[in-house]
Amino acid sequence: MSIKHILIAAIVLLMVALAVSTSRLASAEHENEVIALLTYEYGELTVRSEDAIFTTWDRVVYLEGPERRDPIRAVNESKIKLLVPIELYFLSALGAQGWEIDPSTDRLKHDTYLLRRSRQR
């Protein structure tokens, strides 16, 4: 065998080794994404005026806001501003059920939040 053939064989071998290692790295990243999907359940909270819609992969839930005659919101039949933003009302209610804002994203839009919670095993 000539040196030319040995160099070509070495280059081919190096390219194959590089392709295998790159494939393993991509596979490891994909595996981490799959583990995250299996570890958490995801949902989307969309706040609309006084109410909200909470959507997960298997259900859609309509969430009613605080009662219109709540003393914090109404004084002598005239409406006043909420002392706490309405988003916190819904986020607190979902937080009590184990939901949290997904740290990888903030808001999807100005009125939409991506939430997650650990799956029950």
Secondary structure layout:
Elements: H1 3-39, E1 40-48, E2 51-56, E3 60-63, E4 74-75, E5 78-79, H2 86-95, E6 100-101, E7 107-109, E8 112-118
Antiparallel strand pairs: 1-2, 1-8, 2-3, 4-5, 6-8, 7-8
**Helical stretch count?**
2
Radius of gyration: 26 Å
Largest sheet: 6 strands, antiparallel
Task: Kindly name the structural category.
Answer: alpha+beta
Question: What is the approximate shape?
Answer: rod-shaped
Give start-end ranges of low-pLDDT stretches. none
Number of strands: 8
Please, what is the average pLDDT? Answer: 75
Give the N-to-C terminal Cα separation: 60 Å
Strand content: 25-35%
Question: Top keywords for this entry?
Answer:
six-stranded antiparallel β-sheet, alpha+beta, 39% helix, 121 residues, 2 helices, two-stranded antiparallel sheet, 29% strand
Structural write-up:
The chain is an alpha+beta fold. The protein has a domain of 78 residues. It contains 2 helices and 8 strands, in the order H-E-E-E-E-E-H-E-E-E. The strands form 2 sheets. Strands 1, 2, 3, 6, 7 and 8 form a 6-stranded antiparallel β-sheet that branches. The chain is rod-shaped. The mean pLDDT is 75.
